[in-house]
Structure formats: C-alpha cells, structure tokens
Prior knowledge:
By secondary structure, the protein is α+β, with helices and mostly antiparallel strands. The protein has nine helices and 24 strands.
Amino acid sequence: MRRIKALCFSAVLALVAFSKPCSVSASDFSIRFMPTYELALGSKTDGVLTGIFSLDWSPFTVRTRDEIYFSAQLSPSVMLAHNVDPVLFCNFGAAAGYTFRVSDRISASGEISAGLWTMSEDTKRNLKSASGISFGAKVSGNYYISPVFKASVFLGYQNYCYTPKPFLQSIQAGLGISVNLTRSIFKSDVVSMQEIETQPLFPIFYAHYDTNSFGKVTFTNLEKNDLTDVEISVFIEQFMSVPKIVATYDKIAPGEEFSADLTAFLNESIMNQMQKQLTDALVTVRCKNLGQQNNYENHFFLQTLTRNSMSWEDDRRAAAFVSAKDGAVQRFSRQISLALKDKIETAPSANRLYAKAIFDVLKAYGINYVVDPTSVFSTSDTVAVDFLQLPYQTLLYHGGDCDDLSILNCSLFEALGIQTAFITIPGHIYMAYDSGLSAEQADSVYGKNKYIVQDDKVWIPFEITVSQDTFELGLKLGIREWNKYPEEHMLIPIHEAWTEFKPVTVPESDVSLQFPKDALR
C-alpha cells in the first residue's frame, strides 16, 4: 500500500515539474463518459460495474500538441456477487493526466486519481455506511473522431481504502467517449493571423497586382493536429468580382507558421478612383481539421490611392501610363498619319519624319513644359507618391512636367507604330524612339554617334522639355544629356516595361480636342 501511494505521489510531482516548460493555451473543457468493468482482486465478488463521469480541463500544451489535463470525476458503482443483492457505492475524485499525441488522430494518456468513496447504510440488508479514500491510475488509447469527439479504451487499477483492509481493489477496463465542450459550444479559430503587411494600391497597376504582391499575411496553426487542404484567398469587394486564391498548402503542422503574398485580380472600376481612401478587404483561410471543413476570415483595410498616383521604386512603372489606345492620342496620331501619308515613301527616315511631325503638332497645340514643385522624381525619395498625368490629361491641360511629357510623346509614337523608351538620368526623365535604321544609316540621317545602340536597335534620344523650341534642339540635348552621365544613365524600352506594368486607358480619354491642322503644312 505504501509503495502504491509513493508511486502516485511521485507521478504528481513529475507532472508538476514537467509543466514548467509548458505553454498556457486556450483552455479546453471536455466531458467524458466511461462505462467500466472492475475485476475485483482477492474478493469473492463477481465484479463491479461502474460509470465514470469526468469533467476535464486542459490548460497546458506541451511540445506543441501534448496536453496536461485535470479532471473532476463522479463514479457510481454496483458491486455484484453470487446470490447477493447488488451493493451500491459512489466515488468522488480528482485526477491529473498527460496525453501524448502520437499522430493527428491517435494519442495515449496516463492519469492518476484520488478521491473519497462512500456507501450508504442499508438497514434491510444490515449494511452499515462506510467511506474512505480512494486512489488509482489509468492508461488509455484515444482516437480523435473529429475536433469535438474522441473515443478511447483504457485499463487501470483502483483501490478503495478501508480499515483494517481495503474495501475493494480492482483492475479496471472500459471504453470512453469524450465531447469537447469548448469546441461544440463556442466558435474556435483553427488559425491565428500573426502579421499582415500591406502597401498602398496604385490603381494604374491594377493588372500588375494579378501576379505581383501588394502585401503579405502570416498565420499560425493553432490546432494540435495537421491542417490539410489549406487555401488562402483575398477579396476586395469594391474592386473584385470573386475572391482570388493566393496560396495553397497540402499540410500545415501544429504550431507551424504559413504565409501568402497578397495579389488580386482587380477590375477596371478602380481606375475611377479620384481620391485616396481606405478600402475594406478580406483574407480567408479554408482548411480541413481532422476531416472537418473550417473557415477563418479576417477583415483589414488597404489604402487605395488615386489613379494618377505612382512611386518611383522602379522607373519602369511609368510605362503603365503610356497608352497607344488613349482616345485623344489615337485622334492625334490618325491626323498625323493622314497628313504624312504622301511623304513617307520619299523620306530618308519614316520614323524621323513622324518624330518631327509629333514635335510640330504638340508645339502648335501649345504643349508647354511646366516644372512641378511637388514632383518627387528629382529627389532620392523613391517611396513618396508622385502625380503623373495620363496622355489625354496632358493634352487637355496643355502641359506637364518631364514625366508627363515623356508619357504623352511615347504614347503618340507608339500609336504610330514606333517603339519608344524612357531615358533616366539623375533628377530627370525623357524619351527615345526607335530610329528604324541601322547604325550606318543613322550616321547619315542624324550624325555620327548621335544615337544609342541597345538590344539591336538604334535609339534616338529626344529631350521633350523643349516643346516650344525646335526639333533639332531636342535631338541635340537628348544625346548630350545621355553622354553627360555615362555611369548613371539608363534606357528603358517601353515594350519591355509593359511586360511587367501593362498600359492602362480610361474611357474618358476620348475627349474632344482641336487638332492643330496647320502644324504639318
């Protein structure tokens, strides 16, 4: 007897000591019902039938998914003997245990218990009341049917102490069914969002966001088992028709973090954004938890900027504003093409003829270079938001700064079928166009070394800010500025930039603008 008590006491101390590295998790409360048969040791009884009712509390998680639990138990029992009426007694106890999770659905548990048993007086059978302390231990194998239900089989030892000898010692065996009250009554999230990072949405890049991230979200699996068939989706109701799946995982281990880059298939309605605002967005995690489907949703806000907004982390981004399909650009380019149709065949360079015509038309139309004091291109701040005009806006306003004029000129060239490029130098952006010539031909048309050879094309740099001066001055300054910064200049072909930042056109770009017909006579 003393040895058994010592073993139980040692087990309790081991549980307390082992709980130090534990983490306190969201407490789970469960109820267990365990029909039990007790085989009496050293007694002439036929056995004991017991029903154990247990209220379990699991406040600690060990090694990600093992559990330490505590129980309050009630055990009404019936002692059976041959030719004797059944004897009723009841045991009230408490237990502490440890559950070792072998796999997602299988675990093993060990628990020790102690309590007080009592038997009421029965005068008819001349039985006196009796009571005493009890103690015992159990080991069980458990199967998780679902996050709510768990089935088990167990084997144990129970001692109902009395003086001068035990009232009953028995070997226990039985089945059990456990219901997780926390899960069945209250909604419990299977994942937790640890962090979400987002960048402002630039409407001009709405097509870009289909394959490029505007943020990142990170989750953690809160379950003590693997989550399977995990799917993360994003939905911005104001600018999306359906949610977009941004990440999938076959399996996420307990306690494991998993993340997704936020992308979205936005529709063109975002181009109506005239004021920056906070936009509601939703990220959803769909997964299976022990075969049961679970959804986790979290709302967050995105800052949506105006359609003219852009930042200069990547100079190629400005190519999204270059549109050969801009309504006003199409109208101007058609007029230029009609005016030059009889001159193309005899011109030494068709592209030079078109370039000169574009310059003359914009000059006659009254396009002016206007220094924008709020522009951030000339600064080193690549994150600050700049305001860039769409081509039709520059025509409508009769002017713009260097990036606005570059966008307008490139759009007109592209509408006429001539490929263009941005040229960037410290604090300035301007343009170049494809000469359509070989280097030897360009020597005779533009002069020796007055061009840039890149990607098997001969590019002609052109300074667009001299819009009210002469075409020749634009050519002269274009190559001079390129040569001035041999280590810092860059030529960015628009068609290459379009592979990453697709051009955007708005319906209202087809405005009624008066084409200066006399400019090409």
